[in-house]
C-alpha cells in the first residue's frame, strides 16, 4: 500500500494527492466527512443524496422480475411451513 504525505497549512488545509482524488472521485465541489478514529482521522466523501447512492445496490442480489411484495410473501410462506414442520 502506498503512503502519502501532506503538509497542514496555516489554516488547517491539506492537499489530497491527485492520484487519490481521481481514485475516489473527489472534485472541488466534493464535501468530505472527517471521522476521528483511534489510529487517526478517516476522510470519507459525504453522500449528498443517500437514496440515490443506494439505487442499484441489490442489482446482483435481487431476483429479476420479482416484486418485493411477492418475494416477502414467498419468504413468509416458507417460514410458516418450516415452523409447522418443527412442531
What is the helical fraction, as a range of percent?
25-40%
Number of helices: 3
Strand content: 5-15%
- Strand-pairing-aware structural class: alpha+beta
Unreliable stretches covering 5 or more consecutive residues: none
- Principal-axes shape call: elongated
The largest pleated sheet is described as: 2 strands, antiparallel
Arithmetic mean pLDDT: 85
| CA-CA gap between termini | 55 Å
| Number of strand segments | 2
List keywords for this structure.
single chain, 87 residues, alpha+beta, two-stranded antiparallel ribbon, 3 helices, 34% helix, elongated
What does this structure look like?
This protein has 87 residues and is of the alpha+beta class. It has a domain at 51-86. The chain has three helices and two strands. The protein has helices at residues 18-23, 50-54, 68-86, and strands at residues 32-37, 40-45. Strands 1-2 form a two-stranded antiparallel sheet. Strand 1 and strand 2 form a beta hairpin. The termini are far apart.
